[in-house]
């Protein structure tokens, strides 16, 4: 589609009467209505206002690009207006806007809308084009200028070399651009950086995180060989991949208006080195719909599983603590009290989402946002089939890989139909396929497996139950919040949500409490084996351990992994086994000592099992650990 097809002469306003932002938007909208491009002034004008609230479309350098896509548009069009002195438009650079382009796209015409925005953004990066428009005084001259600029743009694009090979003496930059709506600013920043880099003789590759997905994705090889990184964004983008690289992070507006300064800073060697945090990794895993998943590996499966489990945990913790509160209140107000019933239902509401959230985020980790509907629905079908936690896992992986197949099958659709893929074809086809397979195949299969597992657990003899408790307790201490810990925790939650039996929750809870408690106790008993700094920090582990936060032990495990982890596993396994021997139970998935004291069954024996496990771990660690003098000698040898 050429710009002159939508930027028609009857839509041009070369002498607007407006003097304010609201006036110019009103005047341009009226022109759309007068020419029949829009049939409902109020509906379209409201859409324009909503777009301006999210982020001003005053792009800077005297340009504004208001746009909307809704049902009032009957013919996709662009109104062009030119104001001689300029109007205050809340532009990114604070300067008045002179040239206005109002884009009106039909509802569901995603591809057309984005194409116009992208092409117009590229044209507006050409200073000669802007100067020519400033000088134009008739609609015919404006149309001729647009035709000429578009032809030049097509010629430049045809002559571009797709290769990203970098000469040894040529700097190489990579960049990411994104704005909250993923439309105009994203592509204008891209072109500004590319054009300025070309002027400066610098090779650059720019990834755009737009509303049509991630384009020109940066590969691991791109990142490895880059001399600098520019991230010009107005929303979150995956950042952990840049760990260890010098990264310049700026608002997307600076990518447009200060491209040369960003490039110089990125290549100066003075940009800060980016260090990945845990929140980066978690955030990065939530949105990678076009990630290459052609290579299957245990690592990718683990990452998908952890995405689901980590997303489920807030529901577990918040819902579990509120449920625990309701059980505590029950003893005071009675089971018929509206207070108990209301609070219990609030906690239960969070718990009802556990399996759908687990399945939904596993699916999204694999197939991105197109897998969301089928993932959550597959999890809900697992619940209705009584397929339990295992059924939810299968639903998540099934939905994710079904989505990848559907995306692959539809990738060669004609461009004029591509816009309906995300909003129509992906959700319908993935939901139908995943739903049929879950309802008729996997749901019944895993319902039977789940029922058999529950019957097996309910019929375990005391000896076997103790062994299972010891296994789960020990697993909680293996990596203290890592995958083994989460596997044990998720298993016990699955049993708890299916049966209401909190016995295995008791084993898991005490197992997770012991590592930090044992380290804190050992630092008091064996002071000669801990530095003064370690002794001070170890005391906080009493609080963390009592609160069921295993991660407090991680810094100590990192410096002495064999002794710390080994002693923790032994104490946690013993404590976990004791909870089952003494028929202890905790009817809530979190809260540590506070939940145990309020709700635990056989709570005295629960506390004794914690004490025994803690003392055993602390003694083993203290005896096993070298005296501080020997540690220093071995460290310096």
TrEMBL record:
Where it sits in the cell: the answer is:
Cell inner membrane
Which intervals hold domain PTS EIIC type-2? Answer: 301-624
Spell out where the chain crosses the membrane: 312-334, 346-367, 387-410, 422-446, 504-526, 538-557, 604-624
The record places domain PTS EIIB type-2 at 173-268
Q: Name all PTS EIIA type-2 domain ranges.
A: 5-149
InterPro entries the UniProt entry points to: Bacterial_PTS_Sugar_Transport (IPR050864), PTrfase/Anion_transptr (IPR016152), PTS_EIIA_type-2_dom (IPR002178), PTS_EIIB-like_sf (IPR036095), PTS_EIIB_2 (IPR013011), PTS_EIIB_2/3 (IPR003501), PTS_EIIC (IPR003352), PTS_EIIC_2 (IPR013014)
- Output the Pfam families linked to this UniProt entry: PTS_EIIA_2 (PF00359), PTS_EIIC (PF02378), PTS_IIB (PF02302)
What is the topology of this protein in the membrane according to its UniProt annotation? Multi-pass membrane protein
Q: Which UniProt keywords apply?
A: Cell membrane, Membrane, Phosphoprotein, Phosphotransferase system, Sugar transport, Transferase, Transmembrane, Transmembrane helix, Transport
Q: What is this protein called?
A: Fructose-specific PTS transporter subunit EIIC
Q: What organism does the record attribute this protein to?
A: Amphibacillus indicireducens
**Lineage, opening ranks:** Bacteria, Bacillati, Bacillota, Bacilli, Bacillales
